[in-house]
Design a protein that fits this description.
globular; alpha+beta; 18 helices; binds glycyl-adenosine-5'-phosphate; 25% strand; 7-stranded mixed beta sheet
């Protein structure tokens, strides 16, 4: 656990130090759970979005894009169920006046129990050495079995309990406020997560608008507009990337849980009765998408929902092993015809599809894939963050921090570095190369500091290639091309730089895996 915390802290401070992510309005001490993306962060985020968009819209003839507004007619959120049911159970501590999510307090308690289990296992591993069988130990050691049974019972009560029962659980487990240590709790109440604002021209409740808590509803209300204008036939999908807003009570774990974040969602419209076939298809397709971008298989897993949302008849999360453990990165939901039917009812408009093959009208079923762009960013960067020993210019071992991002999503693809700063013939040549290759991909010219330090700086932001311009360049028109991961340096003619780098950083590499 301590190790995990340490690693996470390193990732967070790396993001700040190298211009990936800053706390929002930091000059005013920041705004809780709101973050800004810096110069390299915005490049990485844009590349993740590009990869997602191309894999959906460009790679599928039957998926088209949309960019709906953040503000929507307020009835949208009544129809979707968000006004009545988009709630978290909230509890206040009477002494510290701090507000918590009641379920998270219980989950934190369970995590501590899990920590005790891990401690027992670690001790036993040390004691039994190579002959240790963890599975058997978990099933037979009385203390571990006791802890596991305790957690299972708590999880059941949490999933099935009413608000009152969840409060009882908190009291029974003697959970104290992390700030004051007090066990004086209020009742548990439901707290709606939507942010609201006011339309300028209409007074009172009538003019109340919400900042969308998911992008999906913009797709649902545009279903017929898109279907008719793009002449798509079912099955087909609509993809969208955009901001979403949730007034999260628990705001922690950096960009994992934000109040303003970005979603990449695709709604796939299918014939009623065919939704499970497509649900299984998208489940596998999405897992492959993650793997292709460099997330190792062992850091990904499916997690079926214990409790289905009001709109779903099947739902699974893809979880990623973040530095703080396995957590949801993406949801795949079979949303039935709930949303379209609700919009049909509240708007009074007919939202039906005429199926030319079946010669029949129906409200399509929907399979949704929904991934948080910021969570994907955090997954990519924490997976890529590596500390390792490598030989320095003098052949001595030295530590480097390198972001081993997939080259196709790296913020800068190629750095152009004159060997020395104060040799005009080198800097001129390097600038000319930079000005030539910048049309093909994102590159950077850097002449400050010794060459070794510049390599380290490029490693730290994940640049897959460095081109170095030296005295041989002036005579032979060749440069060295350094590979970030292997550290291998090859000598190539200047005319071949673009071809070489383009080949390595091409997004096609992600699709053809
Ligand atoms: N349209 C379905 C939907 O919104 P969700 O599971 O609530 O489902 C989908 O959200 C994804 O959005 C999550 O898997 C997560 O990656 C991302 N997400 C949700 N809340 C978030 C938050 N507060 N901060 C960052 N990402 C979030």
């Amino acid at each position: 656990m301590a190790n995990q915390d340490e690693n996470f802290k390193k990732v967070v401070s790396h993001c700040k130090e190298y211009g990936f992510v800053f706390p929002s309005s930091e000059v005013y001490d920041g705004l809780s759970a709101v973050y800004d993306y810096g110069p390299y962060g915005v490049e990485l985020k844009n590349n993740i979005k590009k990869y997602w968009w191309q894999s959906m819209v460009q790679m599928h003839e039957n998926i088209v894009g949309l960019d709906a507004a953040i503000f929507m007619h307020p009835k949208t959120w009544k129809a979707s169920g968000h006004v009545d049911a988009f709630n978290d159970p909230l509890i206040d501590n009477k002494d510290s006046k701090k507000r918590y999510r009641a379920d998270v307090l219980v989950e934190d308690y369970m995590e501590k129990v899990e920590g005790k289990i891990n401690k027992e296992i670690k001790k036993a591993k040390k004691r039994f050495g190579d002959s240790f069988d963890e599975k058997q130990y978990r099933e037979t050691n009385p203390r571990v079995v006791g802890y596991l049974e305790k957690n299972a019972a708590i999880a059941k009560r949490l999933a099935e309990g009413t608000l009152e029962e969840i409060r009882d659980l908190i009291i029974e487990l003697e959970i104290a406020c992390p700030v004051s240590g007090s066990k004086e709790w209020t009742d548990v109440r439901q707290f709606n997560l939507m942010f609201s604002t006011q339309l300028g021209t209409v007074a009172g409740e009538e003019g109340k608008l919400y900042l969308r808590p998911e992008t999906a509803q913009g797709i649902f209300v545009n279903f017929l507009n898109v279907q008719k204008t793009s002449r798509q036939k079912i099955p087909f999908g609509i993809a969208q990337i955009g901001k979403a807003f949730r007034n999260e009570i628990v705001a922690r774990q950096f960009i994992f849980r934000m109040r303003e974040f970005e979603q990449m969602e695709m709604q796939f419209f299918v014939r009623p009765g065919e939704e499970m076939k497509w649900y299984n298809y998208w489940k596998e397709a999405r897992l492959e998408w993650h793997k292709a971008m460099g997330s190792p298989a062992e850091k990904l897993r499916f997690h079926d929902h214990d409790k289905l949302a009001h709109y779903a008849n099947a739902a699974v999360d893809i979880q990623f092993d973040f530095p703080f453990g396995f957590r949801e990165i993406e949801g795949i939901h079979s949303r039935t015809d709930f949303d379209l039917k609700q919009h049909q009812e509240l708007s009074g408009r007919n939202i039906q599809y005429f199926d030319p093959e079946l010669q029949e009208n129906y409200v399509p079923y929907v399979v949704e894939t929904s991934i948080g762009c910021d969570r994907m960013f955090l997954a990519a960067i924490s997976n890529a963050y590596t500390e390792e020993m490598v030989p320095d210019a003098k052949g001595k071992d030295s530590q480097r921090i390198v972001l081993k991002l997939h080259p196709a999503i790296a913020p800068i693809k190629c750095a152009v570095l004159p060997l020395l700063k104060n040799k005009e013939e080198l800097t001129e040549k390097a600038k000319a190369i930079f000005n030539k290759i910048k049309f093909s991909f994102n590159c950077q010219y850097d002449e400050k500091d010794a060459i070794g330090r510049r390599y380290r700086r490029q490693d730290a932001i994940g640049t897959p290639y460095c081109v170095t311009v030296d005295f041989e360049t002036l005579e032979e028109n060749t440069v060295t091309l350094r590979d970030r991961d292997t550290l291998e340096q090859i000598r190539i003619p200047i005319e071949e730089i673009e071809q070489h780098v383009s080949k390595g950083v091409d997004m096609k590499n992600l699709f053809l895996k």
